[in-house]
Amino acid sequence: MALRRVLSLLRPGIPRLARLSTAPAAREESAAGPGPVPGRGSAEAVRPPVPAVDFGNTQEAYRSRRTWELARSLLVLRLCAWPALLTRHEQLLYVARKLLGERLFNKLMKMTFYGHFVAGEDQESIQPLIRHNRAFGVGTILDYGVEEDLGPEELCPGCTFTIPGTNKREKQYQAYWAFRDHRDGVISARTYFYANEAKCDSHMETLLRCIEASGEAFSLLAIPLPCLHLQLQFSDVLTKWRCFFHQMAAEQGQAGLAAMDTKLEVAVLQESVAKMGIASRAEIEDWFTAETLGVSGTVDLLDWSSLIDSRTKLCKHLVVPNTQTGQLEPLLSRFTEEEELQMTRMLQRMDVLAKKATEVGVRLMVDAEQTYFQPAISRLTLEMQRRFNVERPLIFSTHQCYLKDAYDNVTLDVELARREGWCFGSKLVRGAYMAQERARAAEIGYQDPINPTYEATNAMYHRCLDHVLKELKHNAKAKVMVATHNEDSVRFTLRRMEELCLHPAGHQVYFGQLLGMCDQISFPLGQAGYPVYKYVPYGPVMDVLPYLSRRALENSSLMKGARRERQLLWLELLRRLRTGSFFHRPA
């Protein structure tokens, strides 16, 4: 009953729309943003060309930077490539703090790593950098970069950890003591832990101040989720229901098809469900009606997922077969009263943040997490999008393209937004948890969710991006953030934008990179008129050390891109020496 009430909280009174055609040409185009979008309708013949971008022109790439800043960048990136420093960086930082004292240590960090990767200590000190970048065509995604240094005993308060083989839930969605610290091996993203409701409220207040201070198009929203157990349980529910659909699809000879290509025959599905003893035939026939599922005579994954909603009054029938025992098990297990209260409070906090973003005119991007949390996060983000993405995409989800099922996730979200009439918005990333995900899958014994190779991840990223760009061509309200430091992926995006007549003036395709990384990509894009943003963290020096550690490790792992960036910095320094512009002042 408790989980049923939580599901009803997620979706209060959202009407189900009839299934629409999936052909983009069948949908009405509507303009987004001020004025007509170049490359649409009657303007097609006279549209301006998509601006060319030269990522090798160091004079243009670094004209916003003073020479000493280039020298600092070169030093920091070179240190990030020094293995001996990286393997002992935590010990070295500790020794430096002890020897120098906090004041001198802070000055040293501001002259090097902190000054390179972090904007400042508070909302006032970061404003000069924000204004400077904006003057050169680069916007800001603001994020308060402080992280708590939690000990092992503080990571999962109230969690009950599983002994392998003692829990009926899927292995992937159980809490294991060995993996209680889901920061291990994570170098590209910040990881949050639930401590208590007071901490979550404090975090929400920080996010509200961040939204107010941003003054830009985006702010980053890291949802303060409830406890680990609740996240895992909710994710387990959603994933089991999806797996049940694919089990039925395999019985109908549709195993291995893409998610949006898998369509179950209703009559066959009813027969299968009746044979399992889940419900009577009369009850099952009420599930699949023209009112609830359209008139196609088939059920796709979006139709199937809608059945889990409490409005369909199916909760008592939501059971799935255990693949090992063959027995039917309840899908919606019981939440405790405290867990239900945590979920309710979280939904209230998300509502406050979204309303504040609407008031200020800022868009929110919800970060992704590990696969064993992500189904819950995706569902909660979806509910925010349904509510707030009515006129424009206020809430952006995040799709991690290093996952094997990334394309299915993207296509399902695009189609759901299309059917229900809200505005699609997503940030596409490669992913931040590869090492940890693989270690956990191997140790616990479930299928590795990550693409097998870097090349496969690149192909998946481009496939997902291409699908979204095609949607953007026929839906001017849809938006995407191409969040990547990969120059080839940026070039791929520019080429497809030109082929699809997606002009940057339409402000449908955004680009994003981290502060202190890949300026040779960000600033040429901004100066050519493309919407591009820097992820700008801020916070006191001592509090952002975990963030700085990850940036150092990330640069060391991206050897090809970091090496090219160092080469371009050298070239620009040499050019300024040769041309007498060593004391260049950005204007």
UniProtKB/TrEMBL annotation:
<keyword id="KW-0496">Mitochondrion</keyword>
<dbReference type="InterPro" id="IPR015659">
    <property type="entry name" value="Proline_oxidase"/>
</dbReference>
<keyword id="KW-0285">Flavoprotein</keyword>
<comment type="similarity">
    <text>Belongs to the proline oxidase family.</text>
</comment>
<dbReference type="GO" id="GO:0005759">
    <property type="term" value="C:mitochondrial matrix"/>
</dbReference>
<dbReference type="GO" id="GO:0010133">
    <property type="term" value="P:L-proline catabolic process to L-glutamate"/>
</dbReference>
<protein>
    <recommendedName>
        <fullName>Proline dehydrogenase</fullName>
        <ecNumber>1.5.5.2</ecNumber>
    </recommendedName>
</protein>
<keyword id="KW-0809">Transit peptide</keyword>
<keyword id="KW-0007">Acetylation</keyword>
<comment type="pathway">
    <text>Amino-acid degradation; L-proline degradation into L-glutamate; L-glutamate from L-proline: step 1/2.</text>
</comment>
<dbReference type="InterPro" id="IPR002872">
    <property type="entry name" value="Proline_DH_dom"/>
</dbReference>
<feature type="domain" description="Proline dehydrogenase">
    <location>
        <begin position="314"/>
        <end position="559"/>
    </location>
</feature>
<keyword id="KW-0274">FAD</keyword>
<dbReference type="Pfam" id="PF01619">
    <property type="entry name" value="Pro_dh"/>
</dbReference>
<dbReference type="GO" id="GO:0004657">
    <property type="term" value="F:proline dehydrogenase activity"/>
</dbReference>
<keyword id="KW-0560">Oxidoreductase</keyword>
<keyword id="KW-0642">Proline metabolism</keyword>
<dbReference type="InterPro" id="IPR029041">
    <property type="entry name" value="FAD-linked_oxidoreductase-like"/>
</dbReference>
<feature type="region of interest" description="Disordered">
    <location>
        <begin position="21"/>
        <end position="50"/>
    </location>
</feature>
<comment type="function">
    <text>Converts proline to delta-1-pyrroline-5-carboxylate.</text>
</comment>
<dbReference type="GO" id="GO:0071949">
    <property type="term" value="F:FAD binding"/>
</dbReference>
